[in-house]
Amino acid sequence: MKSSFIKRAGAALLAFGCVALAGPALAAQANSNDSSKKPVTVGFTVYAMSGWVSSGKEGVDKVAKANNVDLRWASADGSVASQVAQVKQFISQNVDAIIIDPVDSSALGPQIKEARDKGIKVIGTNVKIFPPGEQYLTSYVGPDDVLAGENETKALVEKIGGKGNVVILKGPLGQSATIDRTKGIENVLKQHPGIKVLAQRPGDWKREEGYNITASWLSRYGTKIDGIISENDDMAVGAIRAMRQRRITNVPVVGVDGIEAGLKNVASGRQLVTNLQNAPLQLGMALQVAVNAVHGQSVPKKIMIHMPVVTHDNADKYMKQMYDNRQQFIDGLPELINKNLASGHYGQQ
């Protein structure tokens, strides 16, 4: 009887011991899961809050929420010095990753190297980062700007019959988007000697600059201008406003980015074409790549996103996706970005 009792007591103690031992193991597993949910801290600096960047921030915010990211957003307002200070601040805050949409493609090499040397993942986006900074990047996520410049120029050349006078509104000097879109424009114009460039000036991606420069050109050249090539939609919006104030409606304007105002202008016929650089998709993807890299996943060294050409015929389609049904698109963005990264079809939308 006593022996039976001892056996039963021993079994009970053994069972209790197993539970007791399992307790810490389960607790450790729970703590491990909790630590995996620890926020990833990401500093994100952009060259300025242009219409395109403002649109893209919605995608960034959605991806940040889906990944439990502590997002620290900063705009350099077109100042290299401000952006250098912002990157230095992110480094001093010991963030996990830094994403840079640079003011100047050549300006941040020392800061990018410092971040890399301290174990911080650095992602370039939208505007390329040139050497020496480029070699220290974890990844780059951006558009094929040469192709965009070619596409908008081909449309304009066809519209004016391969001959005539054009003016070019350029982006900020030193930015890769300006350099590459200008290269694309020149690639096409070289094939059409009947087209003369009357003037070209940087409008720094700004509507007011597009307006002021175009107004000046209209005063100087008047009816000699047969077409306007704008390297983004914001400047194209300004150019269109300058012409409409003078009741000029027969000069075609082309652009890049596919911001809401640009899509509306294409749909209404005020702008000939734009190229849809899907800001929420691209900037959101840059953040997802940063998160993946922080988590130790392998990420592509370079992700190039091709921009679809938006014409009068398909403008409504993109308008519905990007703006009329925008919340639906934004809500599905984290899943879309992960699918695109898995498939390698980065621009699928």
Give structural notes.
This protein is α/β, with parallel strands linked by helices and 349 residues long. The chain has three domains: 1-37; 42-142 and 283-303, Response regulator (Rossmann fold), CATH 3.40.50.2300; 145-275, Response regulator (Rossmann fold). It is built from 13 helices and twelve strands. It has helices at residues 2-36, 51-66, 80-92, 109-117, 145-159, 176-189, 207-221, 233-245, 260-268, 279-294, 315-324, 326-331, 333-343, and strands at 40-46, 69-75, 97-101, 121-125, 139-143, 164-170, 195-202, 227-230, 253-254, 274-275, 302-305, 309-310. A six-stranded parallel beta sheet has the order 2-1-3-4-5-11, sandwiched between helices. Strand 3, helix 4 and strand 4 form a beta-alpha-beta unit. The radius of gyration is 26 Å and the shape is globular. The chain starts with a helix and ends in a 6-residue tail after the last helix. 46% of the residues are buried. Residues 1-35 have low confidence and may be disordered.
Give a short synopsis of this structure:
52% of the residues lie in helices and 17% in strands. The chain has 349 residues and is of the alpha/beta class. β6 (164-170), α6 (176-189) and β7 form a beta-alpha-beta unit.
